Amino acid sequence: MDEVNPMAEMGFVHDKQVIVEAQGFLTPSNTIRDLAVEFIENGGKVYDLIDRYDNVVTYVLNRDNLGNDSDSSKLIAPFLKASGASDYTVQKFYSERLPLLPGAKDVMEYFLNTQPTFVDSRMYYHAALALCEKLNIPPEMVTSTNLELDPVELPYRTRMEVQAMAREISKLKISKTKYELNVPIGLDDDEVAMINTLDDIFLKRLQKNECMEILQTMSTIGPNEKAYGLLDIRKNTQVDLDGTVYIGGELIDFQVMDLVKDGNGLSMSFNGTEFAVHGCNVAVLSEDCTVSAVLVAKFYDTGIQGVFDLIENWNRKYLEKTDFPDRNLLNEMLRRHPRKLPEVYRVTRDNVDEIAAKSDAFRNKLFKKYRKETAA
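User: That's the sequence. What structure does it adopt?
Assistant: Structure tokens below.
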């Protein structure tokens, strides 16, 4: 005999939920790269090389990891510590400099007031805490990469050694080769030089000094953690995948977005990377968050097919006259975009490559714009 759920009997159980990755959606920022720029000499290039290294060894060479659960958020940490970053200065940086997309606060308030809402992000805990404070998000609803810099003491000699490694990395060339999904390709000379150098640093030299303590105590958010996180949330909320919205755009979001898409949920790439778009069923390109709430409201009311129908008629004339579950919300989006609507696409096998390239270019341009504004 099935158990009786008294909450369901009283009509208090939700059948929809929202999970978001903040980067690209709530904040137009690669928060870890921005931190590297702030603290490390030539930090932008150092981060870009480490990030490319991580992606190439993971997705092209198919290594499981480097023995340290490798990813760029983890591998950059020793260089932050050696360059003088502390938990206080990192928290202060994000509190003062974390940019938000227009509409972010209103959208998160809307989500939190209408259905179970979670943030599962690769950003550091310090950035997640700053985001919570700026957007009134309950911290207990947020999962992020754990980083503790203060407990580890680095002797002067070690700091100098690690800073020298950062300079060594910054002198490498960044390969311009683009890799396609599931297409084998040989590595060019710049790529081979990068892998050899960073293998030597991460698999040998850093293993011998105090920085290993930082790496060993970090717990990061990667593709597997995202997928497991989704399943844990599903278990706790008892909301199935066909009632789940996932809004993301990071490369590591592909796996969890693909799960939601296959489960007939709303898998939304918001200013997503090329790789992430391949995991979604809806792609959005916008400098304003409000459009996401419009799509989620439609999903809440009619499910994924209703969202597809809305996208098929995505023009101002239709939107002004259509029967919509939250007319005020839709009118607010139209008001915010008097000339041109946000770009919204249903992603299929036939158009995914074109939309993925367009989204990746939009994301890069958006992030560069906000980097300049933040620096100013």
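The chain has a mean pLDDT of 91.
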